[in-house]
Amino acid sequence: MDQSIEIMKDRIVKILLDNEPSIYLFGSIVLDDFKLGWSDIDILCLTKSELTDVQANQLLNLRQALQDEYKDNPYFPLFEGGFLSLNGFINGTSDTVVYWGTRGQRIRDKYYLDPFSMMELLESGGLLYGDEIRDKFIYPTKESLINAVINHYETIRKHAITTDRSLYSAGWMLDIARCIYTLRTGKIIAKTKAGKWALDNNLVPDVEVMRKVIRIREEPNKYKNDIELMKWLETLGEYIQRFADVLEEEILKVKVYNIRRARKEDSEALAHIIVESWKSAYSNIIPLDEMARFLDKKRRQGQFEKFIEDGEIVLIGFYEEKPFGLAFANKDNDEQLKDCGSIYSIYLLEEYWGKGLASKLMDEVINILKEEGCKQVSLWVYEANKRARKFYEKCGFVFDGNKKHSRFSNKPLELRYIKQI
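and the corresponding structure tokens:
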């Protein structure tokens, strides 16, 4: 591998010599976590001035040229990263960029590193050639790191519900461990070490799953043709999501959120939340022309003012001091159910979906209903609202068999869910 890196460096320098390149390695290769059969070799090359067309085209084809020249070499296809001017990199301006990725190479006009990669480059990156220029880079802020973790968390919730037979399916577990480590320490750690750290700190719900993931990470080529392992990899979705629940709690510890009883002056914000969330949640369930009649913000504001004056349970949630959601409930509304509270509404603005905040609203409203003597809680949800139903089921609600048709002209079906508290 070292010889391959040296050959790659020499070829890049030959192409860019008159453009004063600085070439860095970062990522698993410098964190002592490179595993052939899993890892990439991350590279960044910054030049004094913008790449010429000749330089760009030579770099574009370099990986393939080396692969053709060294046919049995497994390392040249693994180099990934960007080639561009220092000015284009640090200022994010339009530039001639050669990008090497997993699925090929291309020329584009911008390139940047996410906060994780930038921290790796600044703290652990190795200078292969040229002048040291990292003093010109901007260190990621704590906020940018947290946001990067949140973005990754949202990706996991969206794309890791089910998994395939790829060894990379196991990588989701290590990614989560690494995100938790970063949130707790503000630092970056190698993926394998992150998995072991999470085990040592009793953060992993499914310990044996993580141990197996680490074994795969440490010797990927040993397992790449193991049929039984591939079948197991297809089952990882539920374990990944359980570990993502732990990450969700860690995110909420570092991000400032607050839930309280709503006051009359909150009514305008409450009206905005319910109107906008209806548009996001029900556009495919309720006829739009009919829904529009229920989305008058002034009318909704007046309703909330009255609910609050009457002492109804109305909660408002703030995320970094901005209103994000509401919960509306009452005690003993359903005459068929004894000691039962009713939740009429839990709504969040769409940009706050998938961040764990709905669970916090639910916990808070259930705690209030408990304090008021309720032993169970009911709510109604549209049958077609699969996202909401999945959330309620995750919170412990169960469909009790009761159904009714909504008042809208297309008669969407509503289901009653119950939870014992």
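(Above: one complete record from the training split.) Residues 257-420 form a domain with the Aminopeptidase fold (CATH 3.40.630.30).
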